[in-house]
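Possible regression after last week's pipeline update?

I re-ran a chain I had predicted before the update to compare outputs. Posting the input and the new output here so someone can diff against the archived version. Not blocking, just want to make sure nothing changed silently.
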Amino acid sequence: MLTAEQRKAREFHLTASVAPTVMWGDEAELLRLWREMIGEIEPENLDDVWPVQLGSYLETFILDWHQRLTGHALTERGRVVQHPGLPYVCATLDGWRAHDDCTIDAKVCNSWQPLDSIIDRYTPQCLVQKACRQSARCALLVMHGTAEPREIEIISNADYERDMWSRIASFWMCVEALIPPVPLPKRVPPEQWRTVDLNQDDKPNWGHQMIPELQQWAETKAAADCHAHAADTAKALTPPDVGCVRFSNITVKRDRRGYLSIKAA
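New output (post-update):
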């Protein structure tokens, strides 16, 4: 959680954590944030919010773990950095890596949250941290469920960032003018990967090797789906007090957790 010194440095500022809200387009969340910024309501009490407290508890461990594995120091932890050109914007860094001039933002996320959604949600926060620190790169360090933290570099483009800064400026104007903000449509970051159409005549070298594999996948998909359906049905038919079923060279077996698996000898 934030120290008293950090809270004082962040007073009367829009912090990096605001950016996802203005880009996500959630009306209730945006209005609550505005009311908090103008002093109409108290900041939300997160003392009893499990994900927030867990993330706060694990942050140091996650950063230390990643630092040890990569061999590169993560410094400036908890530093509040003022944006060089926008006096009302600042960011609290989870860490910064001198090796490649990269800000690191640690996140602890539930395993049921799709990784793409996590990246979409927190990309604006990382971009504001990068801009405030004037770093060359920014990245998320995501602990997804109980999996080992994974570093994901954040890639953006000029159009997305222009829209982000425009929305942040508009929200700040609403705060100063005491005018409730109007949510804009949700904006997600640009795709990080290029699309290749192998239906076109002009194909990359690897495309000619991939096409037969894709054709074979298409030809066997129906059989694979039928195979999976049969396995699921066989498991569903196995009574809860049965630990093993044998037929021909096939075995349906229940492990200690109660999960069923099917194998052929």
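Follow-up from reviewer: compared with the archived run. The mean pLDDT is 92. Marking as no regression found.
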